[in-house]
Amino acid sequence: MEIKGSTLLKKSDDLIEAGLGESLALMSIESGKYFGMNQVASYIWQAMNEEVSFDDLVSRLTSVFEVDTETCANNCKDFIQDLHERKMVLAR
To answer: C-alpha dihedral over 71, 73, 86, 1, to 10 degrees?
Structure first.
């Protein structure tokens, strides 16, 4: 699935998460694999507690972190696509 501005995103409920300071650790119940997330990735993950559009997510990120919209959108799209392929994020 191609991630677009209107794509709605929500994190999968099939993961266990634990905070590690400003970072986050996730474990996939299905695969048994662990994933570590830095501060920005953790922010993205928490923003997807409720369904959020890709455009809204990028807007939130640019208001919190010092990054331009184009760079943010490109990096965020790659990250979300990776999470979606790992079945960690639901997209519609």
So the answer is: -130
